[in-house]
Amino acid sequence: MKILRAAGMALAMAFAAGMTSPAHAADDIKIGSFVSATGVMGFMGDAEKKVLETYVASINAHGGVLGRKLKLIIYDDGSQADKAASLAKRLIESDNVDILIGGTGTPTSMAVIPEAQRAEIPFISMGGGVSITDPVKKWVFKTPHTDRMCAEKVFLDMKNKGITKIAMLSENYGFGKSGHAESLIVAPKYGIQIIADETYSPKDADATAQLTKIRATPGVQALFVFGTGSGPAVVSKNIRQLGFTIPIYQSHGVASKEFLKLVGKDGDGMRLPADGLVVAKQLPATDPQKPVVMGLTKVYEDTYHADVSTFGGHAYDALMIAVDAFKRAGSTDKAKVRDAIEQTKGYIGTAGVVNMSPTDHLGLTLAAFHMIEIKNGDWVLAD
């Protein structure tokens, strides 16, 4: 597979190279998408929607794929798992799409898996939960690092700092719930003991009760908050209100400028793992991701006059992996496209270098997962 290195819109053009024969509406390649453009995951899904729309338009402007236009059919699931499932069914049965890209979060992704498996249609998720692709499901793939990988990266950083006893405060739903379970599994590998363990609801307006219990637990050396959406911002403000002085870690579920806006100065000093897109300008020139993440950053900033987020990167990778699979399959035959996605090798995306296989429908390693820190209200590379 061709390794993508060109920046910005040129990257989209690279996929369309040599495919400039006339496209007809009847022959559109239909990409069905469901994202959480509103609701508790709204700031994540909105970025995904914008990236998909921007790059589908760019690819079409440069000839489309296989001499055909891409038609993006996209719906907002409102951050609701049951609605995501019904929209996926609509995309499959009424809109007759050729592939599914969606699932802003773990709950919405998991809800759609049965539909994708039943219909035998390729589905590329943008959710973080490891359970989306582990165990491997024939028709299901994903683009972001998993919650398990996040826990491992955080625990490795803690180990390097001599931290062995920690507290966890995790969301009791979806990504946070899965991340909590994975953290319990991998913590012993890094010599980490979780001696205080609390949860919060994504709808909670306050988490001081849980944090007060954590603060009262003797021996806690650091706090790991595992969640996504607006919940971690609420927790972060409560942390500062209660005067915590121990190191605070977050998950990659908050890796966006929107989180920084929500949390303000209360986020300073917090650490988390994130992909290269979040710190694109700080990556060394020798990093193979640099042209890709800088390209997407420029396109997004120029188009929307806003900061791109890791979530927009998830959508970018999903679309580009899908487009390349159509090209290598030479058709929209669902079984052939599925096989082509599974054979993705050497794709350099915003999340890292992707090498999928029949036993790995993510294809990422910890190598491109960077530790970052919030300083003066912005992300700083902390590797």
Largest sheet: 5 strands, parallel
CATH topology descriptor of the largest domain = Rossmann fold
Bulk shape: globular
Element-by-element helix/strand order: HEHEHEHEEHEHEHEHEHEHHHEEEE
Uncertain stretches of 5 or more adjacent residues: 1-26
The percent range for helix content is 25-40%
Q: Could you tell me the strand content as a percent range?
A: 15-25%
SS content category: alpha/beta
In DSSP terms, counting alpha (H) and pi (I) runs of 4 or more, how many helices? 12
Strand order of the largest sheet: 2-1-3-4-5
Q: Give the termini separation.
A: 30 Å
Number of domains: 2
Based on CA atoms alone, the radius of gyration comes out at 20 Å
Architecture of the largest domain, CATH level 2? 3-Layer(aba) Sandwich
Strand elements, count: 14
Mean pLDDT: 92
Q: Write the CATH homologous superfamily of the largest domain.
A: Response regulator
Provide the CATH top-level class of the largest domain: Alpha Beta
